[in-house]
Design brief:
It contains 10 helices and 9 strands. The strands form 2 sheets. It has a 6-stranded parallel β-sheet with strand order 1-4-3-2-5-6, with helices on both faces. A 3-stranded antiparallel β-sheet has the order 7-8-9, covered by helices on one side. The radius of gyration is 19 Å and the shape is globular. Bound molecules: adenosine monophosphate. The site of adenosine monophosphate has 17 residues, from helix 2 and strand 5.
């Protein structure tokens, strides 16, 4: 695996690969890699001649300074994992490489995605996501971009960015990888103790409960039952339990099989914010 730290060096490599007509798959990450990330690398390897992974903890997408400061880093382990899985290129830039002084920072028109759900509870988060992805996609210029469904709204935002900035890459959304308990894998899980991890399974169970009861119970009732269940199991702050139209993320008042829907949950346990989602139809 080749590791690049400078934009100039990776750009030279990318230009050579493009000249040879090699397809490039790109997996952007913030490191502390787990099987969820590795599944994206494997998916890219299946369909591209070159797989590029980036590890960059992007400061501009953290609305909470302490979340940024506590974000786990495991560079040596990450490099070993990537070599093991056969990743071709790792881009490991500094903040100065991603955000040099002369780069213009845009305001991205992502519509209601900016104010709904994650947008509402993490002010400025998606502008930061767009900034970093605009820069990374401009540098890597991939044919295919691999993202996880785990960050459902982020996938929608990045699809919008691709359209706004006229990138030609195709977005491939990969399934959420879970622990055998059902807990979605996340870099933030390392900040949970065993008791928290066991309790956090209630998120997955709640989503299954909603999926199974969507035609039996009113939506507001299910949202209330699930919120109570989360609080009873050790979650101390719930940002949202929402059943939404999966194309627009608008709340659904009444379930209707003709509306594609998704349940999304964000809640804090032991100071760690967990998010998850499940498609209902
Ligand atoms: P992150 O390092 O958390 O920014 O995530 C990098 C990429 O990995 C994003 O596209 C995430 O959606 C994806 N990802 C994170 N966790 C999982 C998971 N459990 N299963 C599948 N993809 C994931």
């Amino acid at each position: 695996m080749i590791i690049f730290k400078s934009v100039l060096d990776i750009s030279t490599f990318i230009n050579r690969s493009k000249f040879k007509n090699q397809t490039i798959g790109f997996v952007p990450t913030m490191g502390a890699l787990h099987d969820g990330h590795i599944s994206l690398i494997n998916e890219s390897k299946k369909n591209n001649e070159i797989t590029v992974c980036s590890i960059f903890v992007n400061p501009t997408q953290f609305n909470d300074k302490s979340d940024f400061e506590k974000y786990p880093t495991k560079q040596e382990d990450d490099i070993a994992l990537l070599i093991d899985v056969g990743c071709d290129v790792l881009f490991l830039p500094t903040v100065g490489e991603v955000y040099p002084n002369n780069i213009p920072l845009h305001n991205y028109d992502i519509g209601s995605l900016e104010t709904l759900l994650e947008g509402k509870y993490r002010s400025g988060h998606f502008q930061g996501v767009c900034q970093v992805m605009h820069r990374l996609l401009s540098i890597i210029n991939p044919n295919n971009l691999y993202l996880g469904q785990k960050d459902y709204q982020q996938c929608m935002v990045i699809q919008r960015l691709i359209e706004l900035a006229n990138f030609t890459c195709k977005l491939i959304i990969c399934a959420t990888i879970r622990e055998s308990s059902g807990l979605a894998m996340s870099s933030r899980n390392v900040r949970l103790n065993e008791k928290n991890k066991n309790a956090a399974v209630v998120i997955y169970e709640s989503m299954l409960f909603i999926k199974e009861n969507i035609t039996n119970l009113p939506i507001s009732k299910m949202e209330e039952i699930v919120s109570q269940k989360l609080l009873k199991n050790g979650f101390n702050r719930i940002d949202y339990v929402a059943i939404c139209n999966s194309k627009t993320l608008e709340n659904i008042a009444e379930f209707n099989t003709s509306i594609p829907s998704v349940v999304l949950i964000a809640a804090f346990i032991n100071g760690v914010r967990l998010i998850d989602n499940m498609l209902i139809s």
